[in-house]
Amino acid sequence: MAEDDTYVRAKLTEINGALTRMTEMLNKMIEVMTRTTGLDEKISDLALAVAANSEKLDELMGAVQTMSAKAAAAASSARPTSSVEEKAKVSSLSSLLDTLDSQIRDGMIASDLADKIRETATLFEERGGSSNLVVKMQRWVRILKTYGRVDPINPADISKLRDDIKSWQKELSKSR
Q: Which of 89, 90, 129, 147 is the S-S candidate for 110 at Cβ 3.0 to 4.6 Å?
């Protein structure tokens, strides 16, 4: 009988150790779940903030377009431009697009290209380019911002961008 008691005690000790380990594992799992839930809440808060910032950005873009359209209208009404000046302006804007097209290469880093397009859009706007084309350029900047900071650009997106630049050049040449 003493042998049976020793066996039962050993088994109970073994079961007690297993229960202790299982309790520790459950506590760790609860801690992980708590942290995961906290992260999910933070991610949803960030998503809301991004959406709000996107809306504000769209509003600001609309305000800038309105202001640039008013400024262009005021400048054109202040003094009439001659056809030579208009052709020089279009030529200058066309050279900006040509420069941008030559700077695009396969495997380019998205953040670098976004910066180049942003700079070109700024110059384009400063030189009196169409606000419609500036908006299209800024759309590409937003698209490229969806990539990671050091991610190479998908070749299909580069091809689409080149096609858009060609259509921008056509649109610009129509204004001649």
A: 147
